[in-house]
Amino acid sequence: MQKSKIFSTILFIPLLYLLGWLLASPLLAIGVEKAQISLIGTVFTFILFIISMPKWFEIRWGLQNTWIILGINKVGKEGNRLSYFLKGLLYSVILLSLILIPIISNEWGNWLGMFSYKVLWNCLLLIVGIGFAEELVFRGWLLEELKIQYGFKKAIILQALIFSITHVGFNLPFWQMLSILLGLFLLGILLSLLRIKDNNSLWGCAGLHGGLVGIWFLTNNGLFDISKEAPGWLVGYGIANTNPLGGFYGISLLLFSCIFYFLKFKNQIFKFIK
To answer: Which of 5, 122, 131, 152 is the most buried (most CB within 10 A)?
Structure first.
């Protein structure tokens, strides 16, 4: 039974993505570009994911109140959803600022402050869209799935591992790929700890994750001019754009953040994972 459960967990998202792509593919007949079909298929996939969640938890696990379980509707005794989201967003600004400060001070980057409304709009879409969509999948659904099957301690490790593997480019040189894997793994751990700290709310995770993606996009598209000579250990690695969390400096910041959250909120964490 356990093996069949984890097998269906692994296949759930790929099958939804296949269905989303099949729903989007007829749009080719009316002139929609092939490059857009993948994006539209992803949107359809996420819509199917949202629609299926209540029945998934009810039929599979006999659980009600899906959006409370996933950390969307229920918030803790302190704070509210917007407060958690903004705090997570602020923390993303702090992390990226700590990366940008040595870049600028060593003259590997310059302030431009020149970006279009389109770039700003895309930045906001990334903050909200990527933040909520990916957190709902990884720190929401996947974390709960694995927690039910393996317990919370193993679930935190497994979801972070899956999160990192699904986001890394395997066409990178080995050590660069390994560096990004480690950075993303630590980000997955940090986001899980943040959810515990926020009394099981997913909103702070969405703010932090979305902020890291959206603000770094803005940074590379008119906010700053980062030199190609900037060292990888500082700005990270990548093909089209670097991932600052994959460099030694970014990994160190994430590791420090994980240790800080664990030590500061260890009583709350231990209570949660029992």
So the answer is: 131
